[in-house]
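FAQ: What does the model actually see?

It sees only this:
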Amino acid sequence: MIYHGTPTLETERLVLRKFTPEDSGDMFEYASDAEVSKYVTWDTHKTIDDSLGFIKYTLNRYMKDETGEWGIVLKENNKFIGSCSFVWMESKNLCGNIGYVLSRQYWNKGIMTEAVKRLIRFSFEEMKLNRIEAVHFIENESSGRVMQKAGMKYEGLMRQKYFIKEKFRDIKQYAILKEDWEKISKNEK
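And it is asked to produce this:
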């Protein structure tokens, strides 16, 4: 069952929720950081209007009941610090590809792994997907470590797969199957 809407999801430290226009300042804070946008497909935000424009685009997708984005919010202070989403979805094959971004201030704290694990759990339990994929530029091994910590397995290198930011990019692909996730979940109990 592919879900409708973008329900709020929680973890120990995080709330994953829909964007609001009020998130534009926090989004601009990380999206304007060239180090943060270095390994994503979108360009560094130059003005807060760039961030607000993306939020408005996403709000429109929510209204159309399209697979959207979740804002990552810290429970301790209600700070919007990043996002995770389905980049694309294949309903016929019950497969989704996820992507994510996080404010540099919160790197190396396990936050993105926590968010990705929750999105994977939602994908298998609620959406009834069979496979979740994610990719990263080969230069961004930190993203690969998030995928590994979330239980994903390395599947291979795709040479010059995407033309992004004026050059062809090699990417590494990871994936987790529902049966893999079920084994991991059973062992964690």
